[in-house]
# Entry
Amino acid sequence: MKHDNVLIVAAYDEIALKGRKRRWFAGLLLDNIAAICKVPRESVREEWGRVYMSVPPGRDVEDVCGSMQRVFGLTWFAIATACSLEIDAFRAEAVTQARARYAEGARTFAIQTMRPNKKFPLSSKHVEIDVGDAVLKETPEYTVNLSAPEATIYIELRHTQSLVYSKRRRGPGGLPVGSTGKALLLLSGGIDSPVAGWYLQKRGLKVDLLYFHSPPYTGAQAREKVIDLARQLSTWSGRTMKLYVSRFTEIQERVAEHVGRTNWTVSHRRFMHMIAHHILTQNGYNAIATGDCIGQVASQTLANMNAIDAATPDLVLRPLVGMDKSEIIRHAREIGTYDISVRPFEDCCVLFAPRHPTTYGRVHVIERQESTLDRDGLITDALAHTEELHFTGTENSL
# Structure
């Protein structure tokens, strides 16, 4: 759909509560909209709690709307038709949109007017009565319902023009990516960690990713699966997302030789956090993040989480900690990562999992077993064999 007089209007809510920093949050939101929707920054502006985007010539409006659904910070958006401030003009457009909604099956309607232009000679109530009468005259089968209408026609009376729209689409909510800090997410090829990455971004975190690869035990297809997950997550970011791919083979082999079998999984996770700690300190991240959910698997008991967290001084974020698996799966489907995650290529955690892992890892026992390893040497080697990939939403590069 292409229209010369079409705008996209959008709203936020949480940003409005940020007091003196509201303008900074709103500016970051506009930057992210322009980046995700691939439109010039000057085509996006904010006024009085609303965001307005002029759709560039030649761009399909529905294509831009598809991108708007991935902008964290937006609560809703709509395709609006811009009219003059003459009542005949916006009344006619409102009638046209009401008729279209009736054809789609709506049988009750309401008119809702927003009047930031206080110099407009008619009150909001007057406009709603006038336009509502015109809709009923054109489509007498309609019924007015002010409490729960099947179609709401919105009219905004701005300072230089009016806007009319009738379909609000839900945005993802949250805060603009980049507004609350940076986190390094331990990304596996499973279902949970990509969903955790989505929730971290929803709370405004700039998220980069760390994946552990164990050739020859894990092959190229497992690595490609994680790359595809990273690419999908980056479409919600509005900025470059990094994926660190670290070789983990030697660590898993040495752990198998020196650490008690029941503690393998916890020790693996501890080494992952130690490697993440070095990347975190070198690159200014504020926290490590994981896809852990309490009680889902043996490594995610409180005792084992405590043993893992003791490996570093870093803050560890677990946004899925209270979710059921069914909730996580449902959300993975919604954000487009589920079909990638269920590809039958296992990651290093699965291949080196003991048959009977401990559910109550004791930090002092695990640390004593790990002390027979050259921990610093293993971590240094893993970091030396870490590659960095960049994703911009559609492409990746070394």
In short: The longest strand covers residues 205-213. The chain has a mean pLDDT of 92. The radius of gyration is 26 Å.
